[in-house]
Amino acid sequence: MKTTLMTLAALAFSAPAAFAHATLEQREVTHNVRERMVVRIPHGCGDEATLRVRVAIPDGINAVQPMVKAGWELSVVTGPLAEPYHSHGTEITEGVREIIWEGELPSEFYDEFIFRARFTEALPAGELVHIPVVQECANGAERWIEIPADGQSASDLAYPAPAVMVLPAADHGHSHGHSHSHSYGHSHGN
Hints:
5-stranded antiparallel beta sheet, globular, disordered N terminus, disordered C terminus
């Protein structure tokens, strides 16, 4: 028993990436619903403070709206969407492809970075969608961008990208050909 505890303690100290990585607060999202996403950053790069948090937005996610964070500068990188969508009668062909927060998070502290987004039916229901996150520090970075290959799990990777399970939209008697994006492109709640 003592050997097992010592082995577990040694593993905990020798592989911090496996035990403390960037994660998402949400475990599941639903097709065509504007979801509030929380990216958790547990530590810096070794002893260095995190100076920049970058979140890549995969294809199939649109209507992205990052939350302003006190003490941090916020910017976005936009580009063409894989699949255009309609909002308030307008076809949207470009959107947020990356969110960037710049500030300072000391290594010994934890923080959260928030955005809202719509997960479209272009993402397969019942599968994980990975949202890569990079923490940049003065002399290095923690790149949470690894996506498991077939037969692997996130626990097999040193720097797994945060992931969330995509669930199908609930059927409310509407045909599947009707687009619901108009009700999620502009929301006053959440």
